Amino acid sequence: MTNHAALMKEIETLPPFCLGEVIDFVAWIKQRKLTSVSKSQFPGTANETRTSRVSPPATMLMSEASLAKDWNTQEEDKAWATCY
User: Fold this and answer.
1) Per-residue confidence of the chain (84 residues) as pLDDT tens digits?
2) Do the Cβ atoms of 78 and 71 come closer than 8 Å?
3) CA dihedral defined by 27, 28, 33, 35, rounded to 10 degrees?
4) What is the DSSP letter of 38?
């Protein structure tokens, strides 16, 4: 079984509420591990180099104030209280 097939099999067995976390993790891997890696090393991609213009921590800090409007509410606190 290939890594791709094994990964897809594992993802298919996850409950739907876990899929967002998988997507976030894949995005993290792409940002951290593939930045400045030549796309030509991967089949089916253009012959370009990926570079990051803004570091992930900087992006996180820039968006914090905007997201706080939605996140810092009693409704959100109640929703997340069951996750701990």
Assistant:
1) 899 999 999 999 999 988 999 998 888 888 887 765 545 555 555 544 455 455 667 777 778 888 888 888 998 888 888 886
2) no
3) 70
4) B
Find all residues with CB under 8 Å of 56, minimum gap 6, and list them.
Answer: 31, 32
Write out the two tokens for 4: 């791709």
> Tokens 């570091």 appear where?
55
Domain ranges in the chain? 1-51, 54-84
Task: At 9, list the tokens.
Answer: 């099999």
Q: d(Cα 15, Cα 27) in Å, to the nearest integer?
A: 19
Q: What is the pTM of this model?
A: 0.40
- CB count in 10 Å sphere of residue 7: 13
